[in-house]
Amino acid sequence: MNRTGLPTAALATALTAALVTGCGGDADAGDSRTVTVTVGYQSRTINTVTAGTLLRELGYFEQELAKRGTRDGVTYEVRWQDYATGAPITAQMTAGRIDIGSMGDFPLLINAARGEQLDRPTRLVSVTGYNLRGGLNTIVTAPDSPLRSLRDLRGRKVSTSVGSAADGTLVRALQRAGIDPEKDVRKLNQQPSVGASALQAGSADALSQFVAWPGLLAHQGRAKALYDGAELNLPTFHGVTVREEFATERPAVLEAFLRAQIRATDHLHDKPVAAAEAVARATGLPPEVVYLYNGAHGIATFDPTLKPALVDALKKDVPVLKSAKLVGDVDVDAFVDDRYVKKAYGDAYAEAVATKAPAARAELWLKDGGTRSFRTPAELLAAVKAAGTAVRAAYVPDTSTGTPWFADKAVWVADGPRLLPFVTAAGAAAYTAAHPGARTVPYAQALGRRGAS
């Protein structure tokens, strides 16, 4: 007998069956086993696409495994499982049913904590998309809502997914505004789609959610931005987590996944429009919304490397989750494991990890598929006006935070000859209060003005 309670012979039989049908040690050459690798992803959380939707559409992981299988004499099969949030991925990982998963920074910490609690440890092995200021999360209200700033949320009902990155943004933003997130607002713990419906029905006064829900609702005319997460000026990101047992037993498979993720990231950088359209087809999201986040000058920066700034941000997230009693202590340094992504990159890793996100620029997407970027918002507006009905979408970075937003959904300020866009009315109001003579103007009026920024 052994600590499992099974006779040794029975245990050996059970282990052999597990190795044949699922996870196990790396295969030797000539072994004819079939191995299934299960990947949990969030198709509509579109800054995870390089480890999920886009990667699946491109087939790069399957290609990498086919090459590996030829060497090992193994047939690898990939099972993709789609979820709305990171919580069910963590549940399936700790149950041994998912090998590799992708989720946001707050869910990653819960993933780490649950893995340790259940003696099924997980490790953070790469990043998908990030925003160094926190712009991937947004609080929105109904288009006709009288709410103008975070302070107006006192006593209101706010929908979010508790334990998500968007929930973290909500908690921190309320605290900075002097509002107790547990006592001064009524938080509704809802899936993103449920929260979106609640906002539309009026049963929620505001919605705090992660990419791509705020942009989708704004694009559809069903919401307006109340708070830009980038105002926190704290990094937020999504990453790839793996069961430690799987990584230990099948390091070559994990490295194949990370090589495929790197290829998918390169594809997104090289062909951002094609990538956005592929994700849109797979998810049913409007391409214009996907491009807002994942485009050449989108809100998300895609880079698989585990940058020190992101690891530091993860450590700062722990107290927020602890205060909500969602985790205890989390050893972030033990959770982060960059060995596999370093091996996947090779000698290029040091240069890649030192690469910084470029500053956002205004961008125009035309119906013929072409895109153009501009130095100033005023130059973009002139191009939009000249292009007329040929415009598919136009994006501008917020004047204060740099968060890209739809030009026609932005709040515009005229300051002398300058035209300045803001994601929120509160951001525009703060600017006009500090600049006498500056005033907000409708988008149509901004298009008709002549000026320079």
Radius of gyration: 23 Å
Relevant CATH superfamily of the largest domain = Periplasmic binding protein-like II
Q: From the 3D coordinates, which CATH architecture of the largest domain would you assign? A: 3-Layer(aba) Sandwich
Helicity level: 40-55%
Percent of residues in beta strands: 15-25%
For the residues shown, what is the average pLDDT? 92
Number of strand elements = 18
Largest sheet: 6 strands, mixed
* CATH level 1 name of the largest domain: Alpha Beta
Low-confidence sequence ranges: 1-31
Produce the secondary structure layout.
Elements: H1 8-21, E1 34-41, H2 53-58, H3 60-72, E2 75-82, H4 87-94, E3 100-104, H5 105-117, E4 122-131, E5 137-141, E6 157-160, H6 165-176, E7 186-189, H7 192-201, E8 206-210, H8 213-219, E9 224-228, E10 236-243, H9 244-249, H10 251-270, H11 272-283, H12 287-294, E11 301-302, H13 308-323, H14 332-335, H15 339-345, H16 349-354, E12 362-366, E13 371-374, H17 377-387, E14 391-397, E15 404-406, E16 411-415, E17 418-422, H18 425-434, E18 439-441, H19 443-448
Parallel strand pairs: 1-2, 1-3, 6-7, 6-8
Antiparallel strand pairs: 3-10, 4-10, 4-11, 5-8, 5-9, 12-13, 12-14, 14-15, 16-17, 16-18
Helix pairs in contact: 3-10, 4-5, 5-13, 10-11, 10-15, 11-12
Task: Describe the protein's architecture and organization.
By secondary structure, the chain is of the alpha+beta class. The chain folds into 3 domains: 12-131 and 237-354, D-Maltodextrin-Binding Protein, domain 2 (3-Layer(aba) Sandwich); 137-232, Periplasmic binding protein-like II (D-Maltodextrin-Binding Protein, domain 2); 362-448, no CATH class. It is 42% helix and 21% strand. It is built from 19 helices and 18 strands. It has helices at 8-21, 53-58, 60-72, 87-94, 105-117, 165-176, 192-201, 213-219, 244-249, 251-270, 272-283, 287-294, 308-323, 332-335, 339-345, 349-354, 377-387, 425-434, 443-448; strands at 34-41, 75-82, 100-104, 122-131, 137-141, 157-160, 186-189, 206-210, 224-228, 236-243, 301-302, 362-366, 371-374, 391-397, 404-406, 411-415, 418-422, 439-441. It has a 6-stranded mixed sheet with strand order 2-1-3-10-4-11, with helices on both faces. Strands 7-6-8-5-9 form a 5-stranded mixed sheet, with helices on both faces. Helix 11 crosses helix 12 (287-294). The longest helix has 20 residues, at 251-270. The relative contact order is 0.13.
